[in-house]
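Below is a filled-in request sheet from our internal design queue. Each sheet records the structural input a requester submitted and the sequence that came back. We keep these sheets so that new team members can see what a complete request looks like end to end.

REQUESTER: design group, bay 2
PRIORITY: normal
MODE: inverse folding
CHAIN LENGTH: 258
BACKBONE (tokenized):
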């Protein structure tokens, strides 16, 4: 479904990704885990076709999109929903208008169809009653849930998440985690989650890639990460625990690493 194959990319004279490979089958959730600046978000931009690698290939839904012109890339992006780190809601629009924006931009839907799809998406994230509110009236967790509703309103086959739990308290992080899992279980959505949140990563991942300084230190099942023996992985987990990130789940992961 999604595959990065031996990706090398330099930006501004700096190596950002170095021989990175990542593969994800249809209906799976893949997590790209790592610290800030490790190249995680750059990988998402490659999947979206917003960047082109210096070498290597990018495959989405069975197609090699590496050299696609912009008009073909727009067709690829139409299959995707995106949840940005900051939510990226339009402050001047209501919640309902924010969720409807992609449908209006795409065209071909009646007002009644848009209303039904918007309400269905907001109902999925538990925010149908907030349809007429403005983003300024929402908490950070609610804004992230609206962003997910906007991402799924056009029934995408693929969802991309950039640090979806960043800045959220544990309860809101738990809510977002559950939504990602429900989209897989109930709608068969293929997801790529970029995060440094260890509990989120282990809760949702079918497949995991750990990046450090633009290089892949581990790929495989989530449960294999702590036992990988990689120094970068161990340092990341230990630092996360020391900084208070990950709680008991991270502690159990570290214990499993021996």
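RETURNED SEQUENCE:
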């Amino acid at each position: 479904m999604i595959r990065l194959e031996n990706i090398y990319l330099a930006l501004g004279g700096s190596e950002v990704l170095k021989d990175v490979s990542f593969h994800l089958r249809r209906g799976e959730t893949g997590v790209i885990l790592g610290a800030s600046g490790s190249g995680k978000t750059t990988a998402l931009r490659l999947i979206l076709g917003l960047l082109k690698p210096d070498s290597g290939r990018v495959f989405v839904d069975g197609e090699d999109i590496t050299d696609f012109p912009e008009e073909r890339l727009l067709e690829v992006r139409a299959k995707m929903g995106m949840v940005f780190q900051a939510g990226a809601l339009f402050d001047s629009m209501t919640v309902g208008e924010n969720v409807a924006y992609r449908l209006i931009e795409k065209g071909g839907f009646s007002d009644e169809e848009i209303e039904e799809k918007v309400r269905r998406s907001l109902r999925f994230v538990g925010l149908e009653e907030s349809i007429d509110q403005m983003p300024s009236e929402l908490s950070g967790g609610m804004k992230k849930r609206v962003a997910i509703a906007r991402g799924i309103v056009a029934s995408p086959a693929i969802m991309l998440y950039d640090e979806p739990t960043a800045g959220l308290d544990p309860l809101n992080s738990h809510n977002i985690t559950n939504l990602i899992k429900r989209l897989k279980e109930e709608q068969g959505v293929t997801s790529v989650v970029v995060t440094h949140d260890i509990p989120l990563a282990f809760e949702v991942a079918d497949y995991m890639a750990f990046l450090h300084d633009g290089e892949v230190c581990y790929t495989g099942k989530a449960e294999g990460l702590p036992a990988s023996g990689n120094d970068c992985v161990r340092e990341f987990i230990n630092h996360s625990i020391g900084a208070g990130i990950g709680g008991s789940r991270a502690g159990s992961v570290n214990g499993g690493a021996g």
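SHEET NOTES:
- The chain is about 40% helix and 25% strand.
- The beta strands are 2-11, 14-24, 29-33, 55-60, 63-64, 80-83, 158-162, 190-195, 207-212, 215-220.
FILED BY: M.R.
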